[in-house]
Amino acid sequence: MKLVTTCLVVHTGQIPCKRYCKLGHQTAPNMTYLNEWSLIQRLNDLYNRDFNTVSKLFRDRSKDMKLVRNVRNYLTHYEGSKVKMAKYVVSREFIMLTLKLKLFVAICLLRSMRMRQTRIRQIMRQLNEFQWLSTEDHGP
Q1: Is residue 79 exposed (0-12), middle (13-18) or buried (19+ Cβ within 10 Å)?
Q2: What gap in Å lies between CA 89 and CA 26, rounded to an integer?
């Protein structure tokens, strides 16, 4: 799940958050970062930023972002009792999810470089991989 982590570092990292922290210098140092957001909140925020493009890859935001969170949690905090998740991470659907997350990270990186949403959409439409993955299932 390095892709999810990369996306979140781009989004939150150790970069002071001026957009969300409105108190500026009055805010405690540990509150000037978005690390207080839950993983699902950060994923949803990233999803919403480029909804028109990302929704082609992940049609059901709530279900899909929870799946990403659950897979990430399973892989980073391994719990042997989750048989369903253990089977999922060795499936074709998991490979599809991983490839979709790769594009999700690319979209996030382009947005972090201040590229306009319309230009990102144009780029993604030209990628055969994006066209193919937007038709593939990734659910368990």
Answers
A1: exposed
A2: 44
Backbone phi and psi for residue 33, each to the nearest 5 degrees, phi listed first: -115, 155
Of 89, 93, 106, which is closest to residue 136 (Cα–Cα)? 93
CA angle 48, 37, 16 (to 5 degrees): 90
Instruction: Give the start-to-end residue ranges of the domains of the chain.
Output: 38-133
Q: Write the pLDDT tens digit of every residue in 54-105.
A: 999 999 999 999 999 989 888 887 765 577 888 888 899 999 999 999 999 9
Q: What is the pLDDT of residues 26-57, one digit of tens each?
A: 444 544 554 568 889 999 999 999 999 999 99
Q: Please report, for residues 47, 113, 116, 134, the alpha-carbon distance to residue 108 in angstroms, rounded to integers and kept in the order given.
A: 9, 9, 11, 17
Rounded Cα distance between 115 and 120, Å, is 7
Q: What is the pTM of this model?
A: 0.72
Q: Which amino acid is at 96?
A: M
